[in-house]
Specification:
With 267 residues, this protein is of the alpha+beta class. It is built from twelve helices and 14 strands. It folds into three domains: 46 residues, Uridine Diphospho-n-acetylenolpyruvylglucosamine Reductase, domain 2 (2-Layer Sandwich), CATH 3.30.43; 110 residues, Uridine Diphospho-n-acetylenolpyruvylglucosamine Reductase, domain 3 (2-Layer Sandwich); 96 residues, 2-Layer Sandwich (Enolase-like, domain 1), CATH 3.30.390.50. The protein is 36% helix and 24% strand.
């Protein structure tokens, strides 16, 4: 593993300043993707800017219409929070099924969102619930944030400070897990409000996406039987040693149907 310099920020502004002062710097949150990448020579940063001591990027704040998570809030904290369980149980369940205990204790919501792994869980929640990503300089709707595989709308040196989810949706998330990594081979996040149904799919393609054909069907009839009748094309879907594109296409329908069943029980 190549050597690098570690800088520790204590505020968001300080982290931004460190990034601007070091052209080859990278941010490190929980390090669950970056550290293995460095070990295997896939990433070679000259400088790491550590966010672990930025207290302003931690914590969970519940308002009358929204819930906000500091970007450095860990998966374990989301899963264990009684307040999250009370107002948005789907996020508590989602976080509690990420990776293993070590990953949940170290990994952060902001780090996962910024990394935008095509099989990560949080992107589906953000897209399905219509969340906003607050950075040091602007607010980015989830619909505009996830661009491509490991690519987001973040500009160089831009830092995610917090993520805000609107309250009020009935939602459920179901994923078919890789048994080793527990990443989603396919995950379906279904959210229903008074006048809208959103279905966000992760793990199936290069980037999380809305399954609009399924949404149209579920707006008319929010049942697992209706979901079962929607067939997704395998064109453009991922195929690898774990699952073919055709298999993932079938999993999209199956996981969505299960999520609809779970969400219907909450109504």
């Amino acid at each position: 593993m190549n050597g690098f310099q570690m800088l520790r920020a204590s505020t968001v502004a300080e982290a931004v300043s460190m990034m601007q002062a070091n052209e080859d710097a990278q941010l490190i949150a929980g390090g669950q993707t970056l550290i293995p990448s460095i070990k295997h020579g896939l990433a070679r940063p000259a400088v790491l800017v550590d966010l672990a001591k930025v207290e302003a990027m931690r914590g969970i704040n519940i308002g009358p219409k929204e819930i906000t998570f500091g970007a450095m809030t860990t998966h374990a904290e989301v899963a264990a929070s009684a307040d999250v369980r009370r107002v948005m149980p789907v996020l508590s369940d989602l976080a509690g099924n990420i990776g293993d205990r070590m990953v949940r204790n170290m990994g952060t919501m902001g780090g996962s969102v910024a990394n935008n792994d095509p099989a990560a869980d949080y992107p589906a929640a953000l897209l399905g619930l219509g969340a906003d990503i607050q950075t040091d300089r602007r607010k980015i709707p989830a619909a505009e944030f996830f661009v491509d595989m490991f690519s987001t709308a973040l500009e160089p040196g831009e830092v995610i400070a917090a993520i805000t989810f609107p309250l009020g949706a009935t939602a459920a998330y179901e994923k078919f897990r890789n048994p080793a990594s527990r990443y989603a081979m396919v995950g379906a996040f279904v959210a229903r409000t008074a006048g809208e149904v959103r279905v966000a799919i992760t793990g199936a393609a290069g980037v999380v996406f809305r399954f609009t054909e399924m949404e149209e069907v579920l707006r008319k009839s929010f049942t697992a039987e209706s979901a079962d009748g929607v067939v997704m094309s395998s064109d453009g879907l991922n195929g690898d040693m774990h699952a073919s594109a055709a298999y993932r296409a079938k999993l999209v329908t199956v996981m969505t149907s299960r999520a609809v069943t779970a969400a219907a029980r909450l109504q």
